Chromo domain-containing protein (Amblyomma americanum), 98 residues
Amino acid sequence: STQEYEVEDVLAIRKEKDRTLFFIKWKNWSSRFNSWETEESVQNCMSLVLDCCIRTNSSYRGNIVQRALRLACRAEDPDVAMLSRLSGFRVPENGFVR
C-alpha cells in the first residue's frame, strides 16, 4: 500500500512540458527531503497551493479559480468574464488584449 505524507508547505510551482509540478516541504521531514510533485499529489492541500500562488505571483491561480468555478457551476466551461474577474484579469472594453 502507498504511504501518505503530510505537506507542510508548497514552496514553488513550475511548468514542465504539459504538466505542473509543485516543490513540497514535507511536515516533520528535513528540507533535504523536499521534492517536486505532480498535481495529483497536492489535491488535499489546495489552500497551501493557493498560498504559494499568491506568494510567488504564480499564474497557476487561474487554474485554481477555474476548478472552483467548475465545481460551483457544475459546468465544464464556466463563464469567461466571471473567470477573468475572479482571477484578477480585466478584459478591455474593446474585448482585445494588445
User: Anything to note?
Assistant: Helices lie at 46-56, 61-73, 80-86. The chain has one domain: 7-86. The chain is about 30% helix and 20% strand.
